[in-house]
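User: For my dataset I need records formatted as: sequence, then structure tokens, nothing else. Please produce one.
Assistant:
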Amino acid sequence: MLIPSIDLMGGRIVQLVQGEKLKLAFDDFEYWIERFSGYPTVQLIDLDAAMRQGDNSALIAQIAKRLPCQVGGGIRTAQQAQALLDAGARRVIFGSVLFSSDGVATDTAESIFRAIARERFIASIDTKAGKVAVRGWKENVDLTPEDAVCALEPYCGAFLYTHVDTEGTLSGFPIERARTLRGLTSRQLIVAGGIREQAEIDALDAIGVDAVAGMAVYSGLLAT
């Protein structure tokens, strides 16, 4: 299944390369909301909040009322998550808060699970050079994605794995990594990072993995 992504920064829809270089930007929200209206899930990410440089909360609320969104970016508490759910989000994505210098913050994961329920909780695992990346992908934790999946499995309803090394590059997603992670969890597994064509989405679907795409959608390589 293809999950189109709406990444927000500075009040615009953007696409970044590896979370740093701005490649594309749009402000025609009505156009893209209409384009994505037929999808069962749309991913909505507040990049400013993720990078601790402000937020796009008003836009998040507006879009979440009109599209079936899983929402992420800088979410640190169950109270923030509940506010997003109340605003119309279907599920909430937690990332950096699930990790500490010691590894996986399982106490935090358990408290989120108890507060908002497993089915609304997506655990985001982003990696650079094979290690978990946090705080807007600016820092790394000495933890593999495989370790993170195994530790978080009891608490979340789904995993979102982003391969930062290929994010926004249109160079293809490493399907063997998806296959490895698929073998570690019974939860829904969603992957992102470099997806460029329908054949990749079909290959991922064949092993029970869903795909988030942004750059390929906005550049016209993937039809929506």
